[in-house]
Amino acid sequence: MKDLVARINAEIETFKTESESLSEKGVKAAGARARKSSLELEKMFKEFRKVSIEESKK
């Protein structure tokens, strides 16, 4: 679970960096990278939810 949380935090930082590049600097390619990052976060959040439920049943 700790590994998953670390991966989520790293992906959040990537998303923040790319979204700031898009909004502040107008880098269009950063928008695509931010969208890709958001999809990865969605997958990781679903995985976190599953793991969290399993942990709570112990």
Strand and helix layout:
Blueprint: H1 2-25, H2 28-56
Q: Give me the number of helical elements.
A: 2
The low-pLDDT segments are none
Mean pLDDT: 96
Structural class assignment: mainly alpha
Order of helices and strands: HH
What's the count of strands? Answer: 0
Question: Rg from C-alpha positions?
Answer: 14 Å
Q: How much helicity do the residues have?
A: over 70%
Distance between the termini: 14 Å
Give the overall form. elongated
User: What composes the largest sheet?
Assistant: none
Strand percentage lies at under 5%
Pfam families: Hc1
Function: Might have a role analogous to that of eukaryotic histone proteins.
Organism: Flavobacterium collinsii
Family: Belongs to the histone H1/H5 family. HCT subfamily.
Provide structural commentary.
The chain has 58 residues and is an all-alpha fold. The protein has helices at residues 2-25, 28-56. α1 (2-25) packs antiparallel against α2 (28-56). The relative contact order is 0.17. Pfam families: Hc1. This is Histone H1-like protein Hc1. InterPro entries: Hc1 (IPR010886).
Question: Can you give keywords for this protein?
Answer:
mainly alpha, 58 residues
In short:
InterPro entries: Hc1. By secondary structure, the protein is mainly α.
